[in-house]
Design a protein that fits this description.
- By secondary structure, the protein is an alpha+beta fold.
- The protein has a single domain, classed as Arc Repressor Mutant, subunit A, CATH 1.10.10.10.
- The protein is built from 4 helices and 3 strands; from the N terminus they run αβααββα.
- Strand 2 and strand 3 form a beta hairpin.
- Helix 1 packs across helix 4.
- This is PadR family transcriptional regulator.
- InterPro entries: Metal_resp_DNA-bind_regulator, Tscrpt_reg_PadR_N, WH-like_DNA-bd_sf, WH_DNA-bd_sf.
- Pfam families: PadR.
Length: 109
């Protein structure tokens, strides 16, 4: 078994939650998402991020608007929807329960 593969799968499982959380703080451009995720060592590439953002939009969890750019093409800025806020709240509850369960198990000798 390869530990790197397991680590990647663990990150992928949390990526949607982290992206929704970032977007919930305010409108965000894709490169800002990548930068914050990278700084948090949740390494992500555009080839992973764009399909995920499209799935979130199709599920009506996020929306976007085009903003003209002074340098280059228009930019797509993402924001969370009411449905997305509710979804994120449920994910946050699930995350808290998982952290608690994991700590309960891993803190035993």
């Amino acid at each position: 078994m390869n530990v790197a593969n397991t680590q990647i799968q663990m990150r992928k499982g949390l990526l949607e939650f982290c992206i929704l959380h970032i977007i919930s703080r305010g409108e965000v451009y894709t490169s800002d998402l990548i930068e914050e995720l990278t700084q948090a060592q949740m390494i992500v590439v555009e080839g992973t991020l764009y399909p995920l953002l499209n799935r979130l939009k199709s599920a009506e969890l996020v929306t976007y608007r085009w903003v003209e750019s002074e340098a280059g093409p228009p930019r797509k800025y993402y924001s969370i929807t009411e449905k997305g806020k509710s979804f994120l709240e449920t994910l946050a509850e699930t995350w808290a329960a998982l952290v608690n369960s994991t700590l309960q198990i891993t803190s035993k000798n």
